[in-house]
Give the backbone structure.
Amino acid sequence: MLQVQNIEKYYGNKNNVTRALDRVSFDVEAGEFLAIMGASGSGKTTLLNCISTIDTVSAGKILLDGVSIADLSQEELAKFRRERLGFVFQDFNLLDTLTVEENIGLALSLNHTDPKAVQDRVRDVAQKLGIIDILGKFPYQISGGQKQRAACARAMVAGQSLLLADEPTGALDSKASKNLLEIMSAMNQDMGATILMVTHDAYSASYAGRVLFLKDGRVFNELLRGERGRSVFYHEILDVLAALGGDVSDVI
Amino acid sequence: MTLSKLSLRNAGRQARDYLVYAVTVVMAAALLYSFNGLVFSQEVRQLSEKMNTLPLVIVLASMVVVCIFGWLVSYATGFMLSRRSRELGTYILIGLTNKQVARLFFLENLAVGSAALVLGLALGGLLYQVLRAILFAMFGLSYHFALNFSLPAMGLTLFYFALIYLCALGRSRKRIHKMKIYDLIYLERQNEGVVIQTGKLRRRIFAVSIVLGVAGTAMLMAGSLLIGITGAGCLIFALFGFFLSFASGVPAFFEKRPARKYQGQNVLIFRTLTAKLATMGIVMAVISMIFTATLLTEGSGLVMSGIFRGRSVESACFDLYFGIEGENQDPGPYMDYITEHIPVEQSVLYQVYLSDQPQVRDYVSSRTVYYCYNYDQDPILCWSDYAALRSIAGYPAVEPEPGRYLFHCMTYLEVPLRDYDQPITLGDTTLTPGSVYTEHLSQSLGVTNGRGYILVVPDEAAEGLAVHHLAYAAKTLQPVPAEGYDALTDIAYREYNKQENPLGYGFVSTKANEAAQVAVQTALLAFPMFYLALALAMTAATILTIQQLSETERYRSQFTLLRKLGVARQEMARALGRQFAIYYAMPAVPSVLIAAPFIFHLARIPEPGVMVGMNSPGIIVIISLGIFFLIYALYILLAYVSLRRNVLSQ
């Protein structure tokens, strides 16, 4: 579904170049739950920004369903983000002037969905994510976990095919984190959502089916969960992080 | 770094962040200085004897303007204090005393105020020249540019500014003195609290305020002082009620219509707006009141100047004119003075007759609003006198029409008179209607060429008719000086008093005197009105803009998110534009709905024939709105460009 081919990203000017991404390549299959791990500054967010078309790559190609996103015009990119990508951010990014229902419905109205159908679709998704009771509330009236679930609802309500999550549990306590991750797993397994999650939390990553490790802008390792249990996978992840060298305290 | 250095640096930042406010303060100084220039100008006072009251009128208007700008500065400094409370709290946190922080804030604002004053004085010098040029043009004098600074005007401006700033800053100073670190650090948060409460009560208030608004506007036009004041009270209640309940009324509206809510960007636009309104409902109501006051003052100013010009233009068609009511009047005393003192190029001494019956007057009264006093019958002029009058007034000659009578009328009677097809009978002559002419021919007052209209008949047909008054019109070699007008008016007064059974009322008019009168009346009444209107409009638009630009950060994060959600730049610009348009339209719409009918009504009050052409009620309303929206648009444009640059930049 998503193919990342040899992408590079440089920042800075002629005299001082920072290489944020260095020949990164990987594929994401439809229906996969992929986590990308790495310490601060390893290039995770840059990678996510490039995939989400918010940033551009310096070299290499990103193909989504065989289409190179670099070939799209500004308008096509906007349309692409609107219809194909769903976002979940660390700081929720809900608009505080809109109710939860309106925040979720916004994605649909931006997609020019028939206005009459919006409410039903929002309710449908909210039901699945267990936030039906708080639809009428404003973001400042609900908890962090609820906010993040509302963000998940917004990310999938318009039928987006790829959900991009940037440290989704970063601002949540452990209980809310667990709850959210279980919901994301359910979205992946029951609803067939393809999820690409960036995190530096091993616990969160252990919910994924595959984990990519980034270090200094390069893919350092890759770990597949296969049929193993989540706790086994979690320890394997910790082992890889230890092997990343010196950064363990930084990543857990 | 010393405290004063920090203050100066902050002042620079303040001027950048609140550019619109800084520009308005500069303009305020310029406006105050330029009008103060008129107060102390000898030259302006010499324009006419009656201009002696101008300084008093302007000082009174300036006092109101000082209050308006005082409120603006007070509001803006209070607003900045809330916005920057965290920063000020940090100063206290690192060891400055409240007193020092208050001083810092005081010095910083004083620096901005002083810089604005200096710039404003320079700009005011130019603005004063514009006012001077307008005044000179009104008095028909040639204008020469002469840049000179008046020290007393500067002193008075400084005094006004000191008043404005010391009051406003005194208040902020008190606030800072009393504040604790916690308050300062969390004040910003308090200000941001979104209060959205829906409820039956609010919806009821909304309905009541609409009713009160309509009733208040109607009462304002009732013409009675007591009802008018009650109406104004209703309008104040209506505006507050409207803006305080609106924020909850809109969500309720959309709640019932989910399909409308999710159409396009409606949800985004209306929520941003209601959140803003919920926190600034009272400010919006005050701004709407100020806008209403702006439109009313400006409209009244235009109506007044319209009345002055409309009344004068009719009488100003002859360089010199006098009329004496009654038959067999003696023009001797007038003529003696004119022969001796006023060089005349062409003149005519003639009589205005009366027909046997008021058939045209009755017809006109039935067709339109017509004030007929002074004439119980139709006024009549004979052809030769009419031809002479046209020549004196400088109008093209017209062909006589044998067997017909012509109409010469004011424009407001043109249409009904063109439709008139009845013959008139004078003695044994019967005449049918002929052409209609509408040039100004001194027809608006009693002892002039008819009231609104006059019938022009062949000389022989006028023989034997009753005389209404004796009249004289002349084209002079030079404009008749003010002394000439005064002397002739004295003669009229003396002659009138001499008569035992006074009916021989004398009326004198000169083109120069009419122009001077319009100029004096406009300078004394309309000028201060425009001065107030300008100050009011600038103040309200500035507060709206400060409020809007202070939300830049919120807009930026909103649009960053929208971009991630896949909204194209163009669409975001459109959404921003719509949010902007609605935000700025909100306080202006009720004001226009209240003021436009009132101004229209006001412009219809004067006698018919005065408010015509460019002074007609509809046009006055359009001009009032046009001037207001021109000033308003400048602020909107400034805010939009700034916001768009900050919010939608890559």
User: Anything to note?
Assistant: The CA atoms of residues 382 and 459 of chain B lie 5 Å apart. The interface with chain A takes residues 194, 196, 258-268, 271-272, 274-275, 558, 561-571 of chain B (CB under 8 Å). Chain B has three domains: 1-192, 196-315+512-650, 320-478. The longest helix of chain B spans residues 266-315.
